[in-house]
């Protein structure tokens, strides 16, 4: 039975015991060695495949190359056999925290993997790189890796259900540090005290502002979750050595809630699995068919459909205005409500464009498709008819779509909205969409077949056919993998792919 953990700020003289703290409750879940349900195991396999797919597509992108080179410039630490790095030969390894860093950037770079949205937003697949890196380094088998990943997903999703970070302009990776630390704790079979200390440090070192996702969005957007994963690995290492961390990290009068979130009078109810209850949080998350912010997924599908049904909409001369009536989040974070002129700037960075729903809707409407590279190309963004139509697209908050966005009923929860297109002749076209086609309740829900298709599509340009098959075979046998096979759970690029990619040098 799910336990609701009540969290509030405590004065120092209240002397909140560890057993009453959220970090301890998280550690308790991590130490509960329950079996992983078959459907959860299947979904974890899907997400391991999904992560590898989007990492493959980003192997030669400069932020990924920089992070990979940083990792490769560090030797394997002496405590294990090391961890593999996406794209590199299996025997080319680095220490686990640097593998978590490099692989985390590769996974997040294209903003193309799984998502969970509630009080906060998240990409829970960001838990996979650090937990997998530690599993490889320490010689854990597939069953242990599976349990660790189930914990990582569960904790992050439970925190996201209850505690809003973005409302206070704190980046969402503050939920990732604790979840990854907990997942590593489960993987290694650590005791509750050690995991508690690791969770505290992981949170303490991963709280940062949301400027990484505001204005002119930089390449740090992909690095931020990788940094949280790296910090989680280091926090576990430190805690295993017997060192302690700030406490109570959430509830203290100078803690995260009091000074970074809702303040000294704040209270939250965090749902966590009860003792003996299986960890099923991953089943409430969903992946992306398109390489764009999740709130854009449904809008891309609607725009593609509208463009096919009404080709006249692709010509800005026929359109007076396009208004997307949507949720508070979509309007203020990726819509015109953000007040960011960069969201209408054809010279803006890719990271900025994938957080601009006016741009995304326009291109999907005109092209009837969405591509992870071509749709963001400077020449595509700068096309004159696109820029003209793009500047006619605005968003508006709609109370009903905001309510549905926050609904806890999965059959009602929605991430889309209603579009009203006014033509120059005064007529209007209206349509709406609640969830993306790939969503579990969408027109074409993703199942194993779709995850494999996505992997093949993104991997074929950079992996040999036999490497694609080798990885897919391993990933689909994840629960039964030996430690030696877990060490091979990586993708190796075709000869010459990485040699032609940038290899920037820095301090190391």
From TrEMBL:
<keyword id="KW-0456">Lyase</keyword>
<comment type="similarity">
    <text>Belongs to the PrpD family.</text>
</comment>
<feature type="domain" description="MmgE/PrpD C-terminal">
    <location>
        <begin position="290"/>
        <end position="477"/>
    </location>
</feature>
<dbReference type="InterPro" id="IPR045336">
    <property type="entry name" value="MmgE_PrpD_N"/>
</dbReference>
<dbReference type="InterPro" id="IPR042188">
    <property type="entry name" value="MmgE/PrpD_sf_2"/>
</dbReference>
<protein>
    <recommendedName>
        <fullName>2-methylcitrate dehydratase</fullName>
        <ecNumber>4.2.1.79</ecNumber>
    </recommendedName>
</protein>
<comment type="subunit">
    <text>Monomer.</text>
</comment>
<dbReference type="Pfam" id="PF03972">
    <property type="entry name" value="MmgE_PrpD_N"/>
</dbReference>
<dbReference type="InterPro" id="IPR042183">
    <property type="entry name" value="MmgE/PrpD_sf_1"/>
</dbReference>
<dbReference type="InterPro" id="IPR036148">
    <property type="entry name" value="MmgE/PrpD_sf"/>
</dbReference>
<dbReference type="InterPro" id="IPR005656">
    <property type="entry name" value="MmgE_PrpD"/>
</dbReference>
<dbReference type="Pfam" id="PF19305">
    <property type="entry name" value="MmgE_PrpD_C"/>
</dbReference>
<dbReference type="InterPro" id="IPR045337">
    <property type="entry name" value="MmgE_PrpD_C"/>
</dbReference>
<dbReference type="GO" id="GO:0047547">
    <property type="term" value="F:2-methylcitrate dehydratase activity"/>
</dbReference>
<feature type="domain" description="MmgE/PrpD N-terminal">
    <location>
        <begin position="21"/>
        <end position="267"/>
    </location>
</feature>
């Amino acid at each position: 039975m799910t336990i609701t953990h009540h969290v509030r700020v405590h004065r120092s003289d209240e002397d909140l015991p560890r057993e009453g703290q959220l970090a301890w409750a998280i550690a308790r879940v991590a130490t509960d060695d329950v079996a992983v349900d078959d459907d959860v195991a299947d979904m974890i396999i899907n997400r391991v495949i999904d992560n590898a797919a989007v990492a493959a597509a980003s192997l030669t992108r400069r932020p990924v190359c920089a992070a990979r080179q940083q990792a490769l410039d560090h030797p394997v630490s002496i405590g294990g056999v090391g961890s593999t790095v996406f794209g590199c030969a299996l025997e080319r390894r680095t220490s686990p925290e640097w593998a978590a860093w490099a692989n985390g950037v590769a996974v997040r770079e294209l903003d193309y993997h799984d998502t969970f949205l509630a009080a906060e937003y998240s990409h829970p697949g960001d838990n996979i790189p650090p937990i997998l890196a530690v599993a490889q380094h320490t010689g854990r088998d597939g069953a242990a890796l599976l349990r660790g990943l189930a914990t990582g997903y569960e904790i992050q999703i439970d925190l996201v259900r209850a505690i809003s970070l973005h409302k206070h302009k704190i980046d969402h990776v503050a939920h990732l540090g604790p979840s990854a630390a907990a997942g590593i704790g489960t993987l290694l079979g650590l005791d509750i005290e050690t995991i508690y200390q690791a969770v505290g440090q992981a949170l303490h070192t991963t709280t940062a502002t949301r400027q990484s996702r505001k204005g002119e969005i930089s390449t740090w957007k992909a690095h931020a979750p990788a940094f949280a994963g790296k910090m989680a690995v280091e926090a576990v290492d430190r805690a295993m050595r017997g060192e302690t961390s700030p406490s109570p990290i959430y509830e203290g009068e100078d803690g995260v809630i009091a000074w970074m979130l809702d303040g000294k009078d704040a209270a939250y109810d965090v749902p966590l699995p009860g003792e003996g209850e299986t960890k099923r949080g991953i089943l409430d998350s969903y992946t992306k068919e398109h390489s764009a912010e999740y709130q854009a997924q449904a809008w891309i599908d609607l725009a593609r459909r509208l463009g096919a049904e009404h080709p006249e909409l692709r010509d800005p001369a026929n359109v007076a205005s396009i208004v997307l009536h949507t949720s508070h989040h979509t309007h203020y974070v990726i819509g015109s409500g953000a007040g960011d002129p960069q969201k209408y700037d054809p010279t803006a960075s890719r990271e900025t464009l994938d957080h601009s729903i006016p741009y995304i809707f326009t291109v999907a409407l005109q092209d009837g498709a969405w591509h992870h590279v071509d749709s963001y190309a400077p020449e595509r963004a700068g096309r004159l008819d696109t820029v003209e139509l793009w500047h006619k697209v605005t968003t508006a908050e709609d109370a009903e779509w905001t309510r549905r966005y926050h609904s806890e009923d999965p059959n009602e929860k929605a991430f889309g909205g209603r579009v009203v297109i006014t033509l120059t002749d005064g007529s209007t076209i209206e349509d709406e969409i609640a969830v993306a086609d790939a969503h579990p309740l969408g027109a074409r829900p993703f199942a194993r077949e779709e995850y494999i298709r996505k992997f093949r599509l993104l991997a074929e340009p950079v992996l040999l056919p036999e490497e694609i098959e080798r990885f897919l075979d391993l990933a689909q046998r994840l629960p039964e993998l030996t430690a030696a096979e877990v060490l091979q759970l990586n993708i190796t690029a075709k000869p010459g792919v990485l040699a032609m990619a940038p290899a920037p040098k820095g301090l190391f």
